[in-house]
Amino acid sequence: MRPNPPRAWFRLAALIAVLGLLLAACSTDDEGDTTTGGGSGGSEEGGGGGDGDPATCAGEAGDDPSAEPVGGGEADGAGLRVGMVLDIGGVDDDSFNEAANAGIEAAMEDFGIESQVLEPNEDGSNRGDLLRSLAEDDYDLVIGVGFLFAESMEPLAGEFPDVKFAIVDDASFEADNVTSLVFAAEQGSFLVGAAAALASGTGKIGFIGGVNTELIQTFQAGFEAGVAEIDADAEVQVQYLTEPPDFNGFADPAGAKTAADGMYADDVDVVYHAAGGSGSGLFESAAAEDRLAIGVDSDQYQTVDEETQPCILTSMLKRVDQAVYDAVLDLANDELEAGPAESDLETGGIDYALDGGQLDEFSDQLDELKQMIIDGDLEVPTTPES
Q: Which CATH architecture has domain 185-318+356-375?
């Protein structure tokens, strides 16, 4: 029979156990201090964290737009004729096309230009034919809204050297009479990614891309980087609606709703889309599931009904309206130059919306990140890590 250990041994063992618990607690506190922010419904350590209740639709309805409307310039455009061809999805897509059309309408009002806006057929196969019809009709400026116009615009620019052309979202070719209206979409996507992580309670966040192209991947890359800046442990689920050459993912609300339904069912509580007119399907799902959504291009809080507005956390503002308007302004002032004309956070052509009030508590932090990007202290990737 072994003798009982002395009481001093028990006291020593107890002291060691207490010290161990204290060291573990200090280690946890140190790790918690490295996490930024705190999401509505999220863990105390930061947006997300994976152990909180899902973020829900908590915004206010009926807010005025946080972004200034396009317009306010002065120029004499009398006699100038500007033609524009939209992409698939139509002028009422509440996104990309609608923004471009708003730019033209503001230019008509402010500068007195004449304009014609055309819509392609359902699959966009007549984009080139519509561009050609405007060039043959001697329009002073012909605009193609989207990178898919590059293939047809490049030869037309050579064929009609006296016509000025502009293309949105493409700088793949150069010509003396072509202006490329391009955007640092990754910068704005970074900011709304940070916003998503700050608001998330589950640490599971979603991204829906319309078509898996290099352009839309820049949105994904910036968004993922913004999420990681706030919560390195957050999970970002990514789903593209179609793969090239099928570009219908930009006009497939039903597909976006199905994708969003699956994400929300898997504890994702914030989803960002870069899918053009398909985004309405995301918003429908968010309202039905009481979860948050992030819009793109336009201030999409202003395009949904009041019942859905509380579910729109923010929108990544890609001011296609401003870029189109500025191109017409430069044309009227005989200052339109060929080559890339980039819009970014510094120029104000990229930003994020504050409608609904759900980002009020995070706006200082987001603005700090915004200034870091402008100053060059924070570089945003343009290609996804995965």
A: 3-Layer(aba) Sandwich (3.40)
Backbone angles phi, psi at 171, to 5 degrees: -140, 35
**Domain at 71-183+320-347: CATH architecture:** 3-Layer(aba) Sandwich (3.40)
C-alpha 228/C-alpha 331 separation (Å) is 42
Residues 6+ apart with CB under 8 A from 27: none
Each domain of the chain, given as residue ranges in start order, spans 71-183+320-347, 185-318+356-375
Is the whole-model pTM more than 0.70? yes
Distances (CA, A) of 355 to 11, 99, 138: 61, 18, 42
The 10s digit of each residue's pLDDT in 50-73 is: 568 999 999 999 988 888 899 999
- Supply the DSSP symbol for 349: S
Q: Using CA atoms in the order 334, 340, 341, 344, what is the torsion angle rounded to 10 degrees?
A: 180
For residue 350, what is the DSSP state? E
Residue whose tokens read 């994708």: 259
